[in-house]
TrEMBL record:
Its EC number is 6.1.1.2. This is Tryptophan--tRNA ligase. GO terms for cellular component: cytosol. It catalyses: tRNA(Trp) + L-tryptophan + ATP = L-tryptophyl-tRNA(Trp) + AMP + diphosphate + H(+). ATP binds at residues 8-10, 16-17, 144-146, 183, 190-194. It is found in: Cytoplasm. It comes from Aeoliella mucimassa. Belongs to the class-I aminoacyl-tRNA synthetase family. InterPro entries: aa-tRNA-synth_Ic, Rossmann-like_a/b/a_fold, Trp-tRNA-ligase, Trp-tRNA-ligase_bac-type, Trp-tRNA_synthetase. Homodimer. One of its GO terms (biological process) is tryptophanyl-tRNA aminoacylation.
Amino acid sequence: MRVLSGIQPTGPFHWGNYFGAIQQYIELQDVADEAYYFIANLHALTTVRDKDLLKQYTLNGAIDLLALGLNPEKAVLFIQSDVPEVSELCWLLMTGTPMGLLERCVSYKDKLAKGLKADAGLFAYPVLQAADILAYDADIVPVGEDQLQHIEVCRDIAGSFNHHFGETFVMPKGKVLDQSARVPGTDGEKMSKSYGNTLAVFDDAKKQRKQIMRIQTDSRPMDEAKEPDGDVLYDLYKLVATEDEVAAMAATYRAGGFGYGEIKKALAEASERYWAEVRERREEYAAKPEVVREILAAGAEKARAKASVVLKRAQDACGVIGY
Ligand code: AQP
């Protein structure tokens, strides 16, 4: 089994990124035959238009993944733009991709609805994502629920290329975790950087506590019993508290008579404990950026070796080499 996934360096990673995607990266690196994980800086260019900031987020993204447990001995970690084969493959795929397929993509439509200016890069984002996946013959792509549609688009693109030019690409499958496929943000919507509702993984405990205290709750009377599932505070608590604590919290909800302030306090405490170790580990990596750059260079070399074989296969299939 070959696993691949990417994450955009558009800002500090949040709980949605970790529990939806990164946690799967770490688990799968132990069982996959090959695992490829990359920082998607070319994708990030569709939103981050500041050179220094993009570089900073890119290196920070790699540091974050390492601190969270990505092991370069088990997985190939690299930066998207260090594998130019993928951009070449993207063009081959672009030529056969119907406009309608991209126009139906929810994340594109959402961004338009939020007033983001649409450029060709944002529109064609799923094609570059398809190239990212197909270039490594990936079977499994661990993601959050919001990315499943893009993986379907990738399958459509690969299927139509295979149909037209003969079997070239491996068909990938998306993989989501049932319990954290869609982590809610501080307003109850999907946690997302562009909604400004995130809890960042690496914020210090004090800042995080402040953000947790600001989480929006409903205004029902405090002595009323409540089903815990679907409540933002409880759903977030489930991610960072122990099994016993979660069971006790569920009982508290069902008994009623609690205050949201107490629950927020419990959530802040569980969060502080949950992230303490990785926050320390992050400081160690952040102090040696040259080591991280070496890991990325070695990763890029391995990734290019794989992607160049697949690119050649695709070029050969559609007749742009060997004339
Ligand atoms: N709230 C979430 N719940 C579960 N999974 C999530 N992911 C993102 N938000 C949630 C997953 O994280 C991985 C990286 O996604 P990305 O590269 O699209 O990162 P992002 O840009 O940080 O995601 P955002 O915050 O949601 O960004 P915008 O606001 O730009 O759309 C993916 O596997 C994603 O599913």
